[in-house]
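A common beginner's mistake is to predict each chain separately and then try to dock the pieces by hand. The better habit, illustrated here, is to supply every component at once so that their relative placement is modeled jointly.
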Amino acid sequence: MTDFIRARPILSAIVGLFVLIVLLGSFPIVPETKQAVIVRFGKPVRILNQYKAGRPIGTAGAGISWRIPFADQIVWIDKRVQDVDMQRQQVLSTDQRRLQVDAFARYRIVDPLLMYVRAGSEDQLREQLRPILGSEVRNELGRIEFAALLTPERQGIMDSVKSSLNRIAGQYGVQIIDVRIKRTDLPDGTPLDAAFDRMRTAREQEARSILAEGGKQAQIIRAQADADAARTYAASFGKDPDFYDFYRAMQSYQLTFIGDGQEKAAPTTIILSPQNDYLKEFTGRSK
Amino acid sequence: MFTASKGPWGSGGGSEPPAGGDGGQGNGPWGEPPRAGKRAGIGGPSVPALDELLRRSRARFGGGGGGLPGQPNRSLIVWIVVGLIAVWLVFTSTHSIAPSERGVVTQFGRYSRTLGPGVSFTLPSPIERVKKVNVEKIQTFDLGSSTSDDLMLTGDQNLIDLAYTVRWNIRSPELYLFQMAQPDETIREVAESAMRAVISQVSLNDAMGDRRAEIEAQVAQNMQRILDSYHSGIQVQGIAIKQADPPDAVNDAFKKVTAAQQQAQSAINYANAYALQLRQKSQGDAIAFDKVYEQYKLAPEVTRRRMYYETMEQVLSKVDKTIVEAPGVTPYLPLPEVKKQQQQQDRQQ
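With all components supplied together, the output reads:
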């Protein structure tokens, strides 16, 4: 066909191309990723490739179709799962704590005709869904305590956001597949600083209790060792207290006057009286 | 008509079917001639043909009677065009798919089949199109960079600074292409959401400590479940937590805890050392005493005297001694002098 047009003069080629475009336009190709609403003079007449749950890819209505040139317009609507992000906003929980929440919803347009009639275009749909998502999230989170957000209950909350959002989204021919909290943060400023303070003091507490615990254990270990030593000494020395006294005194003299071998004892001068027991032989065995 | 075709034209690139369809068909052969012609070997006659064409059109504009020799040239052009179309058909209907790739075939936009690795044939381009998708390549992205303070709330209402990597690949190319509007962004958001959901249920110490592996596995599992519920055709290969630290603002306090742990441990170590030493010493002393006592019992009086004298010898031999003989006389003790003497001795030493 192309070479046929090319072989003709320029004017006829232009006409041929125009005819070709019109012809091709009459047989639109509907891709897997799109649904199409055929609108004839403003009135929707047909839906091509509408999403049906559970139908495998390749069996639905994608492919080549037809339309009346100039009369039928095609409105393309995405068939895939799309997402709408909630703007970051503050939520107040029942216990009056503020939270910054980011959420997103995944949705699919399951009724393109309804969506086209009610919302007009996908961008407008998104613009309408976003505030609804925001208000639903705020409502649901405003009904629970802050701590509940940090529990498995959180998923239950999101499920109820999903179902109430689904009720509204259904009016636009939209099915909400999933609603999820992306992030929950403490707002900057006082709440965040307060949390940091709490963390810091909690660590301080932990540090001190660890130190105290260590000190306690060390003390117990020492005391136990002292007790063990005392028991050992008692068991041994208790056999003859009198001899122990003597024995220990001898050791003690050595230590105090001579030193223990590592350190020299302080210099000493001893003044003895001849009556001293040690010197009793000094005076001769006269006594 | 124009408004109708504006929709697909305006909304995005060449992948829009009606636009891409006729655009591709027109562009290919129209745009290619000189290059593809030469390459295909029909280039020999193409240069004279061009000259001929120019000459003919010049003649036509000049005199108008040049239509007669146009006949053979025209058929040559037709042949060139036919040849180009043949080349086009061959190139667009033969596809070689690399081992790591799959080819998703759409027939007029409708998904038809997925081609495995190797050489495959399809109908030529406007009818069937092939999109190659790499299914083996593990793709990664990082979340929560280590530079920015990206804080998450933990189950005990603390904050943690987390950085992690997500690895994923495409499991089902047709689902990947047709089910998600923004697959890459979706997987990112799902990862963040899943990670925060899991972190919000564990304590700070668990998240920083030894439950990391468990958290990683749980996040990967949750991500996979969510992505499967979207029919995304994505396989999560794994999550790796690169960094799990307390926020910078409270990092010092956390270091203090670590320091306290070290200090406590060292206090205990010292105590243990002391205990060991003391026990050994007491046992040593006791045993020594026992040994001596054994001997002492054999001859108590003699042993006692012997020990006494030995000790006295040792002690008195090493100290200064003064023996005061005169009884009843209060001796004058030159204590300062004694001190001085000692100091001198010390100095000599």
